[in-house]
Design a protein that fits this description.
single chain
Length: 230
């Protein structure tokens, strides 16, 4: 366990004075239940980490994006602290490899489960906060916050069509169209293929169970080809 914690410390760039805090942050309830009184789960730390994360992200957005109204700030914060985002953040440091899980949870893929990884990510935030204070927690959290949020904040919500439109409309003469190129399968399980074109040139192709989903996937591919991280 000591060596594994050392590896995690290297990945997050923080060394704990109190190792018990990070051990608790990595302890899922299934593991704590197996150990009974020998171990606390990370649920209380998750509760605290959620609040620390919200404060740090709120202050960051408030200070760095003075022109955005309250409604937009709220939407962006919600996207940054939602389970989907926290899951992605956890994957960046391979947090699942360090989790302490019960046998059943281990055998059923708990290390890859988004909810478990998101909760553990918040618990680690709390462990850093309790061990090193708010500034240490702030430094840790801000490693994961993307830059230039206002220009493409719709990406945070998975709204790739809006994000693509925001990029393209910087050049008013450009025109984007979505063309359905293929439709297959029975009525209850159809598959659609859509191409997104910029001035008649195909810049992305997407597949989905509905036309809207296929359009979103086409826009996503176009954004990726333009160098935007989705």
């Amino acid at each position: 366990m000591e060596a594994e914690i050392g590896q995690l410390e290297e990945r997050i760039g923080y060394r704990f004075r109190d190792r018990a805090l990070i051990e608790e942050a990595l302890s899922h309830s299934s593991y704590a239940n197996e150990k009974k009184k020998q171990r606390h789960s990370n649920e209380r730390l998750e509760f605290l980490g959620d609040s620390v994360l919200s404060v740090v992200v709120s202050q960051y957005l408030f200070e760095h994006y003075p022109d955005l109204p309250e409604g937009e700030l709220t939407k962006i914060r919600a996207a940054l602290v939602c389970e989907k985002s926290l899951h992605k953040f956890a994957l960046r440091i391979d947090l699942g490899a360090f989790l302490l899980l019960g046998k059943g949870e281990t055998h059923t893929g708990g290390r890859e489960r988004p909810s478990i990884l998101a909760d553990a990510f918040e618990a680690v935030i709390a462990a850093v906060y309790l061990d090193g204070g708010l500034e240490a927690a702030r430094t840790h959290i801000l490693h994961f916050i993307p830059e230039r949020i206002p220009e493409k904040h719709s990406l945070l919500f998975g709204d790739y069509k809006t994000a693509l439109q925001e990029v393209i409309q910087k050049n008013p003469e450009e025109k984007v169209e979505y063309l359905l190129t293929q439709e297959s399968g029975p009525d209850h399980a159809k598959t659609f293929v859509v191409e997104v074109c910029l001035n008649s040139n195909v810049i992305g192709t997407g597949t989905g169970r509905s036309k809207k989903e296929a359009e979103q996937m086409a826009a996503k591919e176009a954004l990726e080809l333009m160098g935007y991280e989705t």
